[in-house]
Amino acid sequence: MSDQVTRSDWDQWWRHAVIYQVYPRSFNDANGDGVGDIRGIIERLDYLKSLSIDAIWISPHYPSPQADTGYDVADYHDVNPEYGTLEDFDELVAGAHERGMRVLIDLVPNHSSDQHEWFQAALAAGHGSPERDRYMFRYSEGEPPNNWGAAFGGSAWSPVEPLSGKAEDRDWWYLHMFAPEQPDFNWENPEVHEFFRGYLRFWLDRGVDGFRVDVAHGLVKAEGLPDDNRGPDKWAADADAQIDHGPAWDQDGVHEIYREWREVLNEYGRDRILVAEAWVYDPSRLADYVREEEMSQAFNFEYLEAGWLPGRVREVIDSTMGANARVGAPVTWVLSNHDVVRHPSRFGFEPGYSTKSGIGFDDPQPDLELGMQRGKAMTLFTFGLPGSAYLYQGEELGLPEVTDLPDEARQDPTWLRTNHTVRGRDGARVPLPWRNDPKDTGFGQNPWLPQPQDWASYSAEVQENDPDSFLAFYRDMIRLRGSLGLGSGSLEWLEGASDEVLVARNGQTVLVINMSGEVAELAGVGSVLIAAGEVTESGGVVTVPANAAAWLG
C-alpha cells in the first residue's frame, strides 16, 4: 500500500463490536405486503439501539429475481424495489449513524444473477467475446468440463445453448458453484476487478461502514479447473455439503483481491471494514484473510459447528485465538445466521448430530426445552469471549428453528435442486414476530414464509416489559459486555469442576459454562454478574447447574 497503515493507527471499533444481522426480507414489514423492507428497518432502529449493538449488517438488499433470496444480484448499484429505494437506504444509514450504529452491507462477488446485464450481454455476444470472458464459460463435448458439484445440489455446470438459443453454443457450459441462476465471475478478468472497485466506492460514498463478503473463499479457482475428490453431488453421500475443500475454494489468489479492496477502503477512512464469510477450517489459513492489509474480521464457523462438546469448544477457542494472534486480528464469534439451523434448536439434539441439511416436520425433532437452556448458556459464554460477536435477527427473542414449514412453502434452492430431499435453510428465515397477534405478528396475513401458530408468543411486544424474557437477557448481556470491556480483554483458562465445565478469566471477569450433566460448584471465583440458568451463590461458592452459564466478578 502506498500509505502504510498499521493496526495501532486504526479506529478499531470492529475488534470488540457486537453486530446484528438483519435479513431484510424477514426483519420488519412496513407496508404489510408480507415482505420485509428498508422502511421496516428504519422503523426498528430504536429497537436495535436498545440492544446496545455497535453495527447492523444488512443481507442483500439489491434488485434480484430472488432465486437465492437476494444472493443472485441483478444490479449491484440499487435497492430491490420490493424493499424500497436508494433514498430509503440513505435514510437508513443516516438514522443508524445518528444513533451511534454503523452499517455493513452484503457484498456478493463470487457470482451475479443470470439476469445481470453482463451475463445477458455475454449470452448475446457469443463464445470468445470480451463479454463472455467476464464469466466462466468452457467448451466440453457431451459432458461438463469437470466433476464439480454445486453447493445447492447437482452439477456446477449448465449448458449455454438453452439460454442463448444459439446452435454454436452446443457443448459450451458456464460455471455456477451455487444455483444455475448464479453464474460465477471470472476473477482473472481485469474488468471484474474494476467493476467491484467501483461498487465499493459507490456504497462507501453513500456512507456504509463496511462489507460482509459472501463466499469470500470462493472467488478464485485452481488453474486448469481440475476435478475435485467429492464429485458432482455434494449431498448424495451424507447430506452434509462441504463448500470449503477442493480446487474451487480457498485458493491463494483471493488474497490479492482483498489487498486491492483494502486500499480502496482506506481512501474513506481506516475504520471501514471487510468481513469474510469464509468456510475455511484450518485456523492458520482462515487467519490469512484477516492479515493487516486484507480484511478486518472472518466468521469463526469452526466455533459455530463445535456443538455441545466441551473439549471441542475449548480446542477451537485456543486454535483460532492463537492463529489470529499471529496476524494481530481479533476472533469473530457467531452462533447463528441465515444459512444454519438456529442454535437453540441445534443444541436440542445429542452432541454431534448434524443439522446441516435443515429440519423438516418428518425429521427427528429437537428437545426444545433443552436446546433453549443450552443455547442461552452458550450465548452467554460466547459473548464473554474477547473479540467481536455477531447475533442473527430473532435470536434475542429466543426464536427456535421453524421445523414444521409446509414443504410446498419452501423456497431454498437447496430444497429445489436436491429434488426435495434436503430441506435447506428456510426454517431460519421465517419472518420475525413483532406483535402479540396470532393473525398478524407484523407481516400481514400472508408473510413470504409462513409463521408458526405460536409465533406471536415470542413477539417483541410480549417480551418488551418482561424482565425474565430472552430480550431482557440479551439487552443486559450486551450492555454488561460493553461496560466490562470483555470484547477488548484476554482469555486465561482456569480449573473447572471437571473437563466438561469450562472456566476462563477475561480481565476481571470469570466465565463459566457447565456442559456436564451434573451440578458444578466453584469456590473463590466471584459473585454472579449475569447468568443463564438457575446459578446461585452462597458462602463464596457458586453453584452452576447442568446446561447453565454465568459471568462472575
Spans of at least 5 consecutive residues with low confidence: 1-10
What's the helical proportion of residues? 25-40%
The strand count comes to: 19
Q: In one word, what is the shape?
A: globular
Kindly report how far apart the N and C termini lie.
Answer: 44 Å
* Oligomeric organization of the protein chains: single chain
Helix/strand class: alpha/beta
- Range of strand content: 5-15%
Strand order of the largest sheet: 9-8-7-3-2-1-11-10
Q: Please, what is the average pLDDT? A: 95
Per DSSP, the total helix count is 16
- Rg on CA atoms, Å: 23 Å
Protein described:
The protein is an alpha/beta fold. The protein has 16 helices and 19 strands. The chain has helices at 24-27, 38-43, 45-50, 86-98, 117-125, 161-164, 190-205, 254-266, 283-288, 301-304, 310-327, 343-346, 368-383, 413-417, 460-463, 470-484, and strands spanning 18-22, 55-58, 102-107, 137-139, 157-159, 172-175, 210-213, 273-276, 297-298, 332-333, 388-392, 491-494, 501-506, 509-514, 520-523, 528-532, 536-538, 541-544, 548-552. The strands form four sheets. Strands 9-8-7-3-2-1-11-10 form an eight-stranded parallel β-sheet. A hairpin with a 6-residue loop joins β12 and β13 (501-506). The chain is globular, with a radius of gyration of 23 Å.
